[in-house]
Design a protein that fits this description.
The structure holds three protein chains of three kinds.
Chain A: H1 2-20, H2 48-75, H3 88-111, H4 115-145, H5 154-186, H6 192-220, H7 222-234
Chain B: H1 28-33, H2 38-68, H3 78-114, H4 122-144, H5 172-201, H6 214-246, E1 256-257, E2 260-261, H7 269-302, H8 310-323, H9 341-367, H10 376-399, H11 401-407, H12 411-441, H13 447-474, H14 491-524
Antiparallel strand pairs in B: 1-2
Helix pairs in contact in B: 2-3, 2-4, 2-14, 3-5, 3-6, 3-7, 3-12, 4-5, 5-6, 6-7, 6-8, 7-9, 7-10, 7-12, 8-9, 9-10, 10-12, 10-13, 12-13, 13-14
Chain C: H1 2-20, H2 33-63, H3 79-107, E1 115-122, E2 125-130, H4 158-161, E3 164-166, E4 171-174, E5 179-185, E6 190-193, E7 200-203, E8 209-213, E9 219-225, E10 238-243, H5 245-253, H6 258-262, H7 266-269
Parallel strand pairs in C: 1-5, 4-10
Antiparallel strand pairs in C: 1-2, 2-3, 5-8, 6-7, 6-9, 9-10
Helix pairs in contact in C: 1-2, 2-3
Amino acid sequence: MSVILVFLLVVAGFSFWWLSRHRLMSKPWLEHGVHTALPETDVAGMPTAKIALGIFLAVVGSLFALFSSAYFMRMEYADWQAPPLPNVLWVNTVVLVLASVALQCAVHAAREGRLDMTRLALAAGGLATFVFLAGQLVAWQELSAGGHFMNVNAANSFFYLLTGMHGLHILGGLVGLGRVAAMAWSEEQVTERLGLGVDLCAMYWHFLLFVWLGLFVLLAGWAGDLIAICRQLLT
Amino acid sequence: MVDATPHAEQGVPPAEVPELELYHPKSWWTTYVFSQDAKVIAIQYSGTAIAIGLVALVLSWLMRLQLGFPGTFDFITPEAYYQFMTMHGMIMVIYLLTALFLGGFGNYLIPLMVGARDMVFPYVNMLSYWIYLLAVLVLVVSFFAPGGPTGAGWTLYPPQAILSGTPGGQSAGIILMLVSLILFIIGFTMGGLNYVVTVIQGRTRGMTLMRMPLTVWGIFTATVMALLAFPALFVACVMMLFDRLLGTSFFMPALVEMGQQLSYGGGSPILFQHLFWFFGHPEVYIVALPAFGIVSDLISTHARKNIFGYRMMVWAIVIIGALSFIVWAHHMYVSGMHPWFGFFFATTTLIIAVPTAIKVYNWVLTLWRGDIHLTVPMLFALAFIVTFVNGGLTGLFLGNVVVDVPLSDTMFVVAHFHMVMGVAPILVVFGALYHWYPKITGRMLNEGMGQFHFWVTFIGAYAIFFPMHYVGLVGVPRRYPELGDAAFVTDSVHTLNAFITVAALIVGFAQMVFLFNLLWSLRYGREAGGNPWRATSLEWQTPTTPPPHGNWGDERPVVYRWAYDYSVPGAQQDFIAQNDPGPQRAGVRPA
Amino acid sequence: MAVALILVLVVVGSILFHILSPWWWSPIASNWNYIDHTLVITFWITGIVFAAVVLFMAYCVFRFRHREGVKADYNPENKKLEWWLTIVTAVGVAAMLAPGLYVWSQFITVPDDATEVEVVAQQWQWSYRLPGEDGRLGKSDSRLVSYENPLGIDPDDPNGQDDVVIEAADLHLPQDKPVKMLLRSIDVLHDFYVPEFRAKMDMVPGMITYFWFTPTRTGTFEVLCAELCGTGHSYMRGFVVVDTDEDYEAWLEGQSTFAQLSAPSTLGSADGVEP
């Protein structure tokens, strides 16, 4: 359970940092009226949707951290036999990085008010993401063609489960991206709403890229190697 | 003195949160059915939760009948007993308590108490309820599926949960259960995001975090915990579904079932237990923290006194929330995990007793030199303290690793968790309903029926679960439809079991009085007015009662003080509402 | 008034129930009376706290119940009092935790002279295996379980040949000799539970778990399953008989080893081997 505990430690650190900015040590019974030194509101100026997405990503992070924890715990058992890593995953990783970069370009374009560039970047990001998903399917096909079916070994099961779960989250993101794209094509100029939508998409994509890199490290077996090395150093 | 940070001068954040653009309903359907109003959603959540909770109540009667009078009821076979038991546990913990506290009270109270017009994402909030309803329906369908619902125990431990030796294991029961849980988690995440973000972003002017009522603190913290803990259940459910449907071996070791070698191999049942309890323990506090918060407000309001040690109360909620993530394996002391874990988890578990005890002290110290009105909500709050202290203290037996060894998996455990997370939170639910019913409907619940309901429920529930500890102490294991004639089980244990059954039936029927009261008072209850308890918090200060969609009329309230200005010296009345600018008191520095 | 009285009655009633109740643990038959002591300490501490909190509440309800014209005190907090209560609570918690952890360390430290006894659980019966004359248990694997080899003992392991197999019958143990119970399940979770021994542990398929104890008095004790294992859970019973040394030896004489059990059946099983 170490992965999830480390993840929660980060979340807890963030939560306590947030709480610490809200004068948790103050004595509220001594503070009367809005005319004291209190700020009129201590609600953050950040858009609500961004905060919500941040919290949602914490939930998604928790989900994948738990999957990784389960992966590590299951790995300890004798029958574990990791499947070969399909080479197409390298391509997929690059493609997903490109998608993220494209959406980051969209963010910048939207900030500068360049609608054409925003549209282009959104389309490129979406396209790259579709390629990524297709690539993941190719990876599945490659594995099952090699006889590495889901129920042969738990390592195989985890491969399908983790990539599938990640793919589902990407699909969910594509729905959001589709809505933002529809907005981008229907509007005459870059509105605040569109800008926010693009921001949110980019945030989500970066996070899922980060998750994917984590999963990639896990599935490639490097994480296990790393732990083995650490353990050797300790003993 | 005011020790506020002076960042008011530099860059004041926008004076008011941008007003939420509410979608105003146009038809009957969008007003009452597909409503985006958090208050309507709250009532939908509560109604659904109570309805499915009633099913679980009936299941508990059937189980008690079997335990009290074994052999009398032919239709309660061991299979049926295990199905009743599993469904009772699962419904009560997840579909009733979690949904009621967060989906019900959270939806109704958070926007009102922080001075918002609605949740920040009303549409997502609505979806949350409908997915919850779908989860409940899937659960209900499992009752009628061939083979019936799963009988794996609410912990759903593999391997037995998906094998043929368990009811529903090889039929649809377990699949529907897992699907229903997955749906519940998805639905809850949608709602939970709303509750958290509304507290973070939706507070009105002047409503600083430390001015929030403890109810909001409790629900807020519980929701944050639930958002982080439910994924563990999600992971466990998905992986078990794979094991059951696709033949993977996440949790399934090589095993021989009824002389038949199965194709599973190498999996780890303990892994499931870790995942399950990583969710399961925070779940206890997900139910308890809202109850803690609500009961603080009930006590304070009805004792006409500020809650004692408000700051400590807030810190304790946050600390309990954080600590509850590192105690999960105290459910697994005898599971066969590495015995060294016992030292760590026993220590963390007993440490969590300290902030919890502080909360109890502060509740009873609030009563000290109070002006105690023994209204029905107050009675329920007092009863909560009795049962919670009782159940919390028996937790010290079970948390202390070696004491847990003889007691684990006995009726002692059943008695403990029913007292601490069954009876105690349910008493708070009742107290809260008597307290807020006037706001929801504009009428008071009938006092006489309320008193009757209270006394039967409190004394009855205590009479059920206090003696049950001793059944466990004798050594009677839990999850036994009948004891048979074991030598250590004397006749008197059977007598005690019969007594408990009778008490359970009586308590169960008292709930019908309560349900009747809910309906009767809707029409014939005394008119309540806007603030019948003379309470300070914002939800009692709405311009109209019951509050309409949007809550506040033209202007959102501005908050000038914390939620506990009761019996302030020098004030004319014994309470000052949060949005009352009031006379400036000496010692407070104007800016 | 009535409320305060009933709260007092709840406390008094609970204490009386505890004292007068005929429902108490079965007389101990193992060395784990430390566990019982820790439990009694916990009863005392928690009992005192429960009585104190509820009686204090009852007093408040009685003394500070609503009266016309009386106003409640205004008292937001009292740091000193809260700190004291915290410290006292922490001390009380430590007083329970310290003996608990001490006894736990004993519980998980198996003495060197403990003999190993294997318990094998399946839906829904108990079987046992004793190490035989060489004092060592042979390897086992649930993949090897078959009709002829119900415990899945590895026939290729020489250590296993002399293992005494007790299938679905009573286990006998000699008095005053520490035993390490090795727990194994071939299907689902079970839990070997004898109330009089106090100790228990889950049995997990694919793993071997253990606990140890020393039987301290002779007698016949019922074995129950304490972890839900399917519809037959409550019927999964057995007996452990604690004998004097002589009785134990006599019983052991009458048992068969794995080699004896598998010898005559090898002929018949040649064509019936499952893949």
